[in-house]
Amino acid sequence: MKFFGQIFFLIFALQIFNHQTVAKGYNYEENCENDICQSLQLTENDTLRHHNREEKIITESLSFKRSSIPIINSKLFRHFSNLRELDLRDTKIEKFKPDSFKNLINLQILVLSQNYLINLPENGFYNNKNLQFLWLDFNNIEYIEPGSFKNLNKLQYLSLEGNQITELPNNIFDDLTSLYGLYLQSNKLEILDDDLFKNCNNLNNVHIEDNNLKIISNNIFAGKILEYIDISFNQIEDFKLIFESIGTLKAEHAFKSGEVEIYGDVNHLDFSNNDNIVGINIENITMLENFLWSGKNAIKLDFLKDASNLKQLSFSSPSISVLPSTFFSTMTELIFLNISGCQLSYIHPNSFNYLDNVEALDLSNNKLNELDIHLFLPMTKLKHLIIRGNKFLCSKISSGIRDYFEQNSIFVESDPLPLNQLKDPLNIFEGILCYNYKDEIQNDESQTDISDNESEITNKFKAEISELRQHLQIIVQHFEGKFNRIQKEIDEIKRRNDIINNVNDKFWNQISVSTP
After folding, report:
1. How far apart are CA 45 and CA 201, in angstroms?
2. Domain boundaries, the chain
3. Residue 264: pLDDT above 80?
4. Does pTM surpass 0.85?
C-alpha cells in the first residue's frame, strides 16, 4: 500500500504542470479546474506541503507558469529536494533571494523567463550544483551581481536574452566551465572584455547580436574552438578577432566603421549589409568555405585570391564595376556564386574558365549588355542562372544560347516583362528580353533621339526612383531583422517546450512501467 500511496502522491504532484498553488498572495484560482489544485498547499510558514503532512515530495517536475508569485522565499520549496525541473515562466516574479532555491539540490532545469526580475543576487544559485539549463530571458534585468552564477560548473545553457543589461562583471562566467550555449542577444551591452570567457573551455554557441556593442576585445575567444558566433546588429569599430577555430561567424549589420581582421580558422563568414567596412583581412583564407558580403563602400577583394576551398561566394556592392578575368581562377571548388547588385557592365568570356563545379550563378541587377555563350561553356554543372535586372543588347546575345540552356537543363531567370525604358525599342532574342538600337553603328551622339528636355525629366525620374528604392530597402532590411529575431524567439520557446515535454513523457513512462 505504501508503494501505491507514493504513486498516488506523485501523480498529484505532476498535475501541477497545469494548475497553481493555494497560497496567500499567490494567484491560482483563474486556472484552477478541480480538486487537484488543493494537492499542494502553502503552510503558515510559507512552505509548500502535500495536504497536512510535512514530508519530502517525490515529484521531479513542477510548473507554475502563468501564475502570480512576486517573491520567492527560501522555505517555498523546502520539501522538493528531488525536483529536477522547475518552470516559473511568466509568474510575475520581481525578485528572489540568495537562498530562494537552496533546497533544490538536484535541480537540472530552471525556467525564470518572462518575469519582472531587475537584478540577479550574488550566490543566487549557489546550492544548485546540478543545474544544467538556466533560462532568464525576457525579464527586465539591468545588472548582474558578481558571483550570481557561482558554483554552477555543470551549467550547459544560459539564456539572458531580451533584458536591459549594459555591462557584465569581468568574472561573471568564471565558474561556468561546462557552458556550451550562451544567449546574450537583445540587450544593451556596449563592451566585452578579454577575460569574460577565460574559463569557458566548452563554449560552442554564442549569441551577442542586437546589442550596442562598440568594442569586442581582440582576445575574448583566444584559444577557443566554437561552432557558431552571432555579432549582428551592433556598432563595432575596427574589429579584430583572435581564436583557434570558428564554424560560423555571422556579422550582418555589425560594423560601424573601420577594418575587419580575422585571425584563426573559420569556415563560414557572413558580412552582409555592412556599408562602412573599409577593408577585410582573413589570415587563414584557405579554410574559408562560405563568404558573404554586401555594402556600399569600395573594398579590395584581393584577400579572396587564395580562397581555394570556397564553396559559396556572394558579394554585392555598387562600388564594384570591374572584375579581373583571373579573379575566380583559384576558386575551383565553388558551387554557388552570387555577384548580383554590382555595377558590372562586362564580364570577360574567360572569367569562369575554372568554375566547372558551379551549380548556381546569380548575375542579376548589374549593368550587363552582353551575354556570351562562351562565358558558360566551362560551367558543366550549371543548373540555375539568374540574369534579370540587366540591359542586354540584342546584337550582343550569342546566337544559339537558348538552345544551349535547354540542352543542358539550365533554368534561366530573366526579366519576365518589358521595362518600358522610354523610346528604347524592346525585343525578345533567344528568349531573353533585349534592346535593339537602330543607330547602334553610328557615333554616340546619334544613338538616341531623346531631347534635352526629355533627358532632364528622365534623369530626375530615375533619381527619385533610386531614392525610393533605397528607402524601401532600408525598411525591408529593418523588418527582416525584426522578423528573424522574433522567429528565433519562437523557435527557442518551442525547443524549451520540447525539453519539458520529453522530461514529462519519460516520467510518465517510468510510472507506467512501475505500476502493476
Report:
1. 43
2. 454-516
3. yes
4. no
